[in-house]
């Protein structure tokens, strides 16, 4: 009698499985769990219905900005969020940052519900949000000291220096924000967020206030830094090209109110990526067109609802 083939042992018929288990005892495959899990999240901004508002005729209704949004984000992924203006992108990011309450659903970071801001999430703002009276170095030091008050002075200095180098701001350490260009200010914003060594970097239109050329330079810088650190990033952007250059996945949101996730695109381009050559990838134009159509359709519907 010939011995059973390997295939027949690995894939027994149902009857063989019940009679004698021939399946080798294999360790269960590890399902990669999401680092950040947004589960059925809704945000309702409560209206004003109190007596004073009634007397001054300034009552407002409850407003559901986003509704039932679910996204799972694996570690070391660069995720962009794109959607028409006012759809609720910042609202969602602020809830992930712990800066805004969640009305329904939950957001889990490493399986733990988010209950407020924390050093595990670093934020980069469109308007930089630097302390104007502090130098570049002091702005970064202030953030690190706030999160790690017991850090030894030597380590503190090293951490500040490393992050200043990372964003290419050597020589500007003693300058104050008013002495810096917009691009340099945002470099400080990025260095400050990274200096606290967060698990996740959150960026709300980080290049939105910059001219096109500076924006391009900083995008390439962020791509370079991401290659070095591979931190999980969630970035809001209005730029299709920016999202395609930087992201592994792009979350496309519908228009509000009650905005939802329309589709999540996978961006398959190999890394490191180069802005000069990325559009030569066979999938580039198809993804770009899909995003353009989505944004056009959603924005058109917003405009139509205003008429
Ligand atoms: N504190 C608030 N109270 C009431 N409504 C708010 C509040 N903050 C935001 N909204 C509303 O929620 C909706 C989503 O706002 P949000 O700022 O998140 O949009 P966005 O997608 O970030 O827009 P943009 O692309 O213009 O930055 C908008 O209709 C906005 O008016
Ligand atoms: Mg916004």
Describe the structure.
The chain has 307 residues and is α/β, with parallel strands linked by helices. The protein has a domain at 32-116 and 232-294: P-loop containing nucleotide triphosphate hydrolases (Rossmann fold, 3-Layer(aba) Sandwich). 37% of the residues lie in helices and 19% in strands. The chain contains ten helices and ten strands. It has helices spanning 6-10, 14-19, 51-55, 89-97, 136-147, 153-166, 182-195, 212-229, 240-246, 284-306, and strands at 36-45, 63-73, 78-82, 104-109, 112-113, 121-124, 200-204, 232-236, 249-253, 261-266. The strands form two sheets. A six-stranded mixed beta sheet has the order 6-7-8-3-9-10, with helices on both faces. A hairpin with a 2-residue loop joins strand 4 (104-109) and strand 5 (112-113). Helix 5 (136-147) packs parallel to helix 7 (182-195) and helix 6 (153-166) crosses helix 7 (182-195). The longest helix is centred in the last third of the chain and has 23 residues, at 284-306. It is globular and about 55 Å long. The relative contact order is 0.15. The structure holds adenosine-5'-triphosphate and magnesium ion. Adenosine-5'-triphosphate (ATP) is lined by residues 45, 63, 65, 83, 85-91, 256.
């Amino acid at each position: 009698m010939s011995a059973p083939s390997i295939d027949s042992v690995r894939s027994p018929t149902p009857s063989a499985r019940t009679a004698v288990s021939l399946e080798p005892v294999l360790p269960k495959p590890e399902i990669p769990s999401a680092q950040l899990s947004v589960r059925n999240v809704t945000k309702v901004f409560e209206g004003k219905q109190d007596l004073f508002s009634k007397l001054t005729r300034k009552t407002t209704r409850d407003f559901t900005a986003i509704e039932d949004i679910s996204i799972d984000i694996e570690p070391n992924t660069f995720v962009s969020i794109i959607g028409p203006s006012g759809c609720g992108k910042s609202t969602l990011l602020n809830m992930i940052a712990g800066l805004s309450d969640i009305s329904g659903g939950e957001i889990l970071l490493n399986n733990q519900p988010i209950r407020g801001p924390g050093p595990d999430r670093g934020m980069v703002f469109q308007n930089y949000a630097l302390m104007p009276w502090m130098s570049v170095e002091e702005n970064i030091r202030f953030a690190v000291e706030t999160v790690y008050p017991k850090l030894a002075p030597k380590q503190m200095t090293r951490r500040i220096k490393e992050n200043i180098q990372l964003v290419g701001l050597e020589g500007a350490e003693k300058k104050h924000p008013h002495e810096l260009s917009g691009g340099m200010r945002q470099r400080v914003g990025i260095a400050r967020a990274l200096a606290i060594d967060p698990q996740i970097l959150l960026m709300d239109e980080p290049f939105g206030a910059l001219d096109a050329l500076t924006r391009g330079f900083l995008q390439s810088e962020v791509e370079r830094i991401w290659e070095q650190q591979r931190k999980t990033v969630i970035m809001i952007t209005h730029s299709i090209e920016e999202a395609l250059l930087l992201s592994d996945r792009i979350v496309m949101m519908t228009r509000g109110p009650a905005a939802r996730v329309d589709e999540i695109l996978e961006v398959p381009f190999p890394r490191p990526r180069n802005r000069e050559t990325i559009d030569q990838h066979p999938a580039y134009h198809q993804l770009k067109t899909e995003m353009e159509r989505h944004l056009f359709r959603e924005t058109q519907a917003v405009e139509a609802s205003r008429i």
